[in-house]
Amino acid sequence: MSERQHGRWLAWAINPTSTGMIGSQAFVALQRSDGTLEAYTSPIDTYGTTLVKGDLSFTVHDVSAQNINGQVIIFARFELPMNGSNVVNHVWQEGPLQDDDTPGSHGMSGDNLRSFGTLNFHSGKTVAISSHNVKLNSRSKIKIAHGIINAVSWGMMMPLGVVLARLRYLPLQEYYPALWFNLHIYCQSIAYFLGIAGGGVGFYLGRQSSSVKQHTCHRYIGGALLVLATLQVLAHRLRPSKEHKYRVYWNIYHWCTGYGTIIMGILNCFKGFQMMDVGIWKNAYIAFLASLAFVAAALEVSRCYLNANKGTATPEGVSANVVKKDPISLQHISEIQQRTPLVPLKLSIHLAGDSVWVDCEKGYQSSSYKAARCKSSQCKLASTILCGDCLVGSVERGPGCNRDACYNIIENPLVQILTRGEIAQDVLTIKSINGSFVGRDVKGTIGFGHQSAVSLPVQFASAFKFSRKFAICLSSSTERNGIIFIGNSPYLLNSGFDASRDLIYTPILTSPYDVVRDKKISEYYIKVSSISINGKNVPINKTLLSLEKQGGTSISTGLPYTMLASSIYKAVTKAFVNEMPKEVRSVSPVEPFTTCFNSSDIGMSRLGFNAPEINVGLHKKNVHWTITGANSLVKVNEDVVCLAFVERRTRDWGEAIIIGTYQMQDNLVEFDISRRRIGFSNSLFFHQTMCSNQNYT
Q: DOMON domain: which residues (predicted)?
């Protein structure tokens, strides 16, 4: 063995039990800084050994060291029981001396980790052992396991999870709204738990070699990774809702902590590769990172391209269409132009409608009308359940009655009847109008249902490549118009106010199955967890609030006023009356209402009538929709105002709460079909504006 410079130590050892360091019986030579040599023996029973003097497990007669021509040679004479074999395992190492001339830690990479082999005393032949021709010792296996686990977790899955999160900006998100978010969460969670396991293995290795100081940087980074990742997990549990004012600060924290974790994880992987001197692993990891970076860059370019071209695909005027409130039926009506040549049609807004349907009985003339034939793609798209011939005598009647045509069951929400309607295609245009029409001569409905591929927002999203999303802003006035926005926000009103700015979101629940139509119902169901009035909870049978237990809550444009199941209605009216000021006198009810007051006793404010505040608790504890006096009380004549809720006296089935249009007036309500959520603005009176305050008419 040789030593080329002063102030170093070297050792050669026999390991009677294994190929590694633990159990080795070492002969040590110290060459001090003053040039003197010292030789002694040292048994090694821990990775943190400091090579202290001690007797070996076999007899040693003498040991010495000499420096001959710059090479340090250890001489020893010992008796080794061969146990029938001339071959022993041996190891060797070298390292620096510390300031007090005691052995310091040796290197932990390259040749220092490959310094073991076999020695044949009979032939004198030595064989250096590599990972290809010897069974690894337990510590080597643990180190390899530590490296693999941490490279996969911190080095691969964490960056991959970030790329998955970016996929939510691509068009596929429209069809699988939660897919990429869930994949991101699953990927990061698995990486975190694997990282904890890898950190535990590293801690075990560190305890076994507590005196080794070379890897302090690697250890500190590993510890910091575990801390940052744990904080990230805890922060996810405390994530505020998107409408919360502190959400922007949470996002900044999430991004900074997340990207910091990614950078530190990658850095520590390269530290590990350097320590283990495994060039092929390092090169493979670099190739993985390069591939991932290429994919991420391609996704960002695609996202920027789609965003840049999204606006050009939307036809002029399609983003906003006027809605008129009929003073007699209280329906909310819009106008489209259909057929060739174009004919203006007044259609009722139907949130749960599966399609746009019009009356074909009288005067339907169009050169572009085409009935959908049985088994055609249009029939499949519309999920039709009927197909056949409709004849008057022996001839086809025309639009609405043709041979070999498919049909669906359609609903008239105003009179609550179902009928059969022929599936067809025709020219349709939507544009802003002057708002001069009224509710008479309504010819059909515009369906905005989320379970149908042929509802208006879904068809427009497919045709013009914008989000499957729309927002309704219903006017409280029969003289001034409301608005429907189809497509992306912002939803700007006259004052420049973006009505989508402070939306409170709640999920759209999975719809029940309609056995009559053989498909899921297109109603918009949400979770209502509580109702409070002036901050006091109204006692409600919670079973009635569960959609799974044949109760629940839906939103409808077919009802002018919110309808409540009898027990809920009675509890709400009682609590509301109790919270009214004592000087407000009750008066005889006016149908369809049962709770009415003298209007002269009730003052006015910018939020409408001075009335108790109603808060509808949604899917989370601190998420609620506020109903103020403008939407809770309705003026039925000059002297009387009534609580604008109606009792649902018979309820053998169906929802316990159906939110009607009066409670939605001068609130912007966004229906995000892609993300399966509904956003409420609360009363726009809070922002000193209203739904009729717009220039789309």
A: 1-95
